[in-house]
Amino acid sequence: MGRWGHRLFEGDLDLDLVGDIEREMKKAGLPKVELEAMLYKPTSDEYRKTRDALVADGVGDAIVTHLRSRADRETGYLKSDLEYKSILTVALLLGAGSKIDQQHLEYVKALTGEVQSREGFAHAIWDHGFRGPGKRQFLAALNAYQPGVCRDLGAPSCFTCGKTKQDTDKVPSTCGKCKGAWYCNKDCQRSHWKYHKKSCRDPNDSQGLPYVMMNV
Question: What residue numbers bound the domain in which 177 lies?
Fold first, then answer.
């Protein structure tokens, strides 16, 4: 289990939870959908098939309704796990351009303040929930939501405000040193530096030692 980025679906646990959501859909009697295909290239047949399934009338709302109902009956870790699955589900629905009920949008927006979020490194076994850049990526997508407009979940997003080219008409710039973070402008970069400086390093500068990324 590990992580190769700080944003949504850039870690093994998020991808495992996508599989869990597919099983929850089966329990709810919903159509079988390969949700992970939403993370493939938009030109792929798998992506188009999954997107078409998620934009079908009522499918997206039915998934979130089922997960909310399950979360209401649980406590502790099981409850928080189902709540984070609701967030990931809505993220996938945003990627598909699905129609999402306003109450579900408000529900997951409120959850972003409750679900665990870390700004930096975490041991893989405890790395549940958001990293800061992923949380802001999700909120920016949520705030920009329009039915029928597909959110590109893989597009570079600012680590400070979460915005992408879809919001600003400009691709965020990479950190000049590590190339592992994106920013809209210098103000965003300066604001995030207190978190980013701990891990910012030139991957080509190993100081004579092997450079291995085990969990960012």
Answer: 155-205
Identify the CA nearest to 86 among candidates 127, 133, 142, 40.
142
Residue 4 lies in a domain: no
Between CA 216 and CA 210 the distance in angstroms is 16
Q: What is the pLDDT of residues 72-91, one digit of tens each?
A: 999 999 999 999 999 999 99
Q: Is residue 146 domain-shared with residue 179, that is, in the same domain?
A: no
* DSSP-based helix, strand, coil % in the chain, nearest 5: 50, 5, 45
Where on the phi/psi map is residue 35: left (φ > 0), alpha (ψ -120 to 50), or beta? alpha
The residues that bridge with 182 in the sheet, in sequence order, are 174
207 vs 103, residue with greater confidence? 103
Domain membership flag for residue 2? no
